[in-house]
Write a structure and sequence with these properties.
Layout: E1 3-7, H1 13-23, E2 27-31, H2 42-45, E3 55-58, E4 61-64, H3 66-76, H4 88-113, H5 122-146, H6 161-175, H7 184-193, H8 197-207, H9 213-220
Parallel strand pairs: 1-2
Antiparallel strand pairs: 1-3, 3-4
């Protein structure tokens, strides 16, 4: 059965996109423009009331939250290498890192880009952005120290979803113009990983994704 993946250029939905590509799944990619507010359109809120990407339509249901989508895809396509499903300890440690990216690093980024999630006060938003960048830099220092400690990749000798999430973080950091000179190991790893054919393919797929039907109709009118 075909899947439909809702994502947005520059978002963490790239991780789910890489996963469905790795799985060789039959899927359709729909790209929302978060800056234009596509995620707040009633048609999308009917799928995900939280108005966030990624969201995956599959088997007559909708799965939201990146880590939940990754677990579903890894279980459905166990040979795709999305997560290390054949090593329970490695799987647990990989999920540990994914959760840290989601619950800590991504929150600092949201302070910078999505201050409306936390407050409606413009002054508070500005302070959130400032503190978010400081906390993000501290998290990057921690991430930089882990490079090489667990193998060739972030967790072991196999490339997996957590390494793609690291690339997503890199893109956010570039947009925030954070100085990465102190994070040389992480920077080198990301640059190496971004040259992988599977990563290049996912990035190209993201860049060429079509907008949702309700946006396409509005642009045509």
């Amino acid at each position: 059965m075909s899947m439909k993946l809702y994502g947005a250029s520059g978002s963490c939905a790239l991780v789910a996109l890489w996963a469905v590509e790795q799985a060789g799944a039959d899927y359709e990619l729909v790209s929302l423009n978060l800056g234009a507010g596509d995620q707040r359109h009633p048609a999308f809120l009917a799928l995900n009331p939280h108005g966030r990407v990624p969201a995956l339509e599959t088997d007559g249901a909708v799965i939201t939250e990146l880590n939940a989508i990754l677990v579903y895809l890894a279980a459905r396509f166990p040979g795709a290498g999305i997560l290390p499903m054949n090593d329970v300890l490695l799987l647990g440690r990989t999920m540990e890192l994914l959760c840290w990216f989601s619950s800590t690093v991504h929150v600092h980024v949201a302070q910078c880009f999505r201050g409306e999630r936390f407050t409606d006060d413009a002054d508070v938003k500005d302070k959130l952005k400032q503190s978010g960048k400081v906390r993000l830099a501290a998290a990057l220092a921690e991430l930089n120290e882990t490079i090489g400690q667990r193998g060739a990749y972030l967790n072991g000798d196999g490339f997996s979803a957590v390494d793609i999430f690291s690339i997503v973080v890199w893109r956010w950091v570039q947009r925030l113009e954070i100085d990465c000179s102190a994070f040389g190991r992480w920077t080198g790893k990301v640059q190496h990983d971004m040259a992988r054919p599977d990563v290049v393919r996912a990035l190209e797929r993201e860049a060429n994704a079509a907008p949702p039907s309700w946006v396409a109709a509005a642009r045509a009118s």
